[in-house]
């Protein structure tokens, strides 16, 4: 049985970059569609890199491999800041472990260190600047960075090790700069997380266009096909968001996955509004919603409790 959860992220993204590159004859011929080994060369020294993915799902492994190879061959780029919400890696060599080289990465701002032991080692040995912030706060930070806001303001993290009164999320002695501030509005305390302009986003998808839009319609197929048989699934929809213009494509993808890979599937979310909207969208595609309020109800309906 699979259990699937959604994080707060849109179903397409746009690259954010302030770089300017000379338009050589070769680049004019190729346009923006290039091989991974060429794509990583746009990354400059001291850039801030954002990556997407969850464990081994949705991570652009080929790009990370080519970036590591390019660094080992040339010593470039250097001094990168890496920012990401969920952990991405296999606890060994894959995922963000490709960034675990001294001088390649200078600073890491992240929501989960557990799957990247090479980055962990750099942090515990005081070789990089290192912060551990809430995954949700970082997810919202992407939106605020895109909007040009100087801070992400939330009550999340108050009273924890992320609170500046308790260390501000710094995880080693080398890290001294405060990136979390305590503020007060109307007598109530909040944390203000400093935003960091992103130069390059490394994202994985099925289809992309030259404007930076990326879709994920076949990514689930790539993940589920190796299982080799149909499975039961419970899908957690709390924190799920999608642009209205993508609802039809999303529900069509769900229908394909249900028919091809699932013996049975139930879904749950505490949001009454989302249960109604998602239920209507699935029904239009002749997909039985089976939407419940809690995981216990979803498991009982599936006969797995």
Report on the structure:
The protein has 305 residues and is α/β, with parallel strands linked by helices. The protein is built from 9 helices and 14 strands. The strands form 4 sheets. It has a 5-stranded parallel beta sheet. The protein has a 4-stranded parallel beta sheet with strand order 1-12-13-14. The protein has a 3-stranded antiparallel beta sheet with strand order 6-8-7. It is globular and about 55 Å long. The relative contact order is 0.14.
Count, helices:
9
CATH architecture of the largest domain: 3-Layer(aba) Sandwich
Give the low-confidence spans: 3-25
* Radius of gyration over all CA atoms, rounded: 21 Å
What's the CATH topology label of the largest domain? Glutaconate Coenzyme A-transferase
């Amino acid at each position: 049985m699979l259990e699937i959860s959604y994080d707060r992220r849109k179903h397409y993204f746009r690259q954010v970059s302030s770089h300017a590159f000379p338009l050589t004859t070769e680049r004019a011929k190729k346009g923006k569609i290039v091989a991974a080994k060429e794509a990583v060369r746009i990354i400059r020294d001291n850039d801030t890199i954002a990556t997407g993915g969850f464990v081994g799902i949705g991570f652009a492994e080929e790009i990370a491999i080519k970036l590591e190879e390019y660094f080992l061959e040339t010593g470039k780029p250097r001094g990168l800041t890496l920012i990401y919400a969920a952990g991405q890696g296999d606890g060994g060599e894959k995922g963000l472990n490709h960034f675990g080289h001294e001088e390649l990465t200078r600073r890491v701002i992240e929501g989960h260190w557990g799957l990247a032991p090479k980055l962990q080692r750099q942090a515990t040995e005081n070789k990089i600047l290192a912060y551990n912030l809430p995954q949700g706060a970082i997810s919202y930070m992407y939106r605020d960075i895109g909007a040009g806001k100087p801070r992400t303001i939330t009550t999340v993290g108050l009273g924890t090790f992320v609170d500046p009164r308790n260390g501000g999320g710094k995880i080693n002695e080398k890290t001294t700069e405060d990136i979390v501030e305590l503020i007060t509005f109307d007598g109530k305390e909040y944390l203000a997380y400093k935003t960091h302009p992103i130069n390059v986003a490394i994202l994985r998808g099925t289809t992309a266009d030259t404007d930076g839009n990326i879709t994920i319609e076949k990514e689930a197929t790539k993940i589920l096909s190796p299982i080799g048989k149909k499975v039961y699934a419970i899908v957690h929809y709390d924190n799920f968001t999608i642009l209205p213009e993508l609802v039809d494509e999303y529900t069509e993808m769900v229908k394909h996955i249900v028919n091809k890979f699932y013996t049975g599937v139930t879904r749950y979310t505490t949001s009454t509004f989302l249960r109604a909207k998602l239920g209507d969208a699935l029904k239009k595609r002749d997909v039985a919603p089976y939407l419940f309020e809690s995981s216990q109800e979803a498991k009982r309906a599936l006969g797995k409790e």
